[in-house]
Amino acid sequence: MHCTPVPPPPSATDREPPAFLYYKKALDCIENGQYEKALALLDTAIVMKSEFAQFYYAQGQVYELLGNTISAGVSYERALRYKSHYPDTWKKLAHYLHGAWSIREGVSDAYIPYFLSSRFSKV
Hints:
Layout: H1 12-15, H2 18-31, H3 35-48, H4 53-65, H5 69-82, H6 87-105, H7 111-120
Helix pairs in contact: 2-3, 3-4, 4-5, 5-6
């Protein structure tokens, strides 16, 4: 009788789609203050699985940490395209809209709900 070794079962990491591995590495980089590296990893994750809203949300957070509010707002908008019921993202985007546009262009707070509804009703 000849026995062949049975390979060990795959670990949880081996079963995860590669995009999520890049995402998890990006989160580690964010915790360690390696923001540029985190952005590169998130970009790779997005290329692999572009419909996952959490990737864009994390990207927006990194852009905020780097002081790039315009790119942060764009990332939050993209997150909402894939997951419209995402309260944290709505809060971030509202904060971005209020801070970036109402001060710079004199837009009143009453305009923000109108802007959001017109911006996302076509999605």
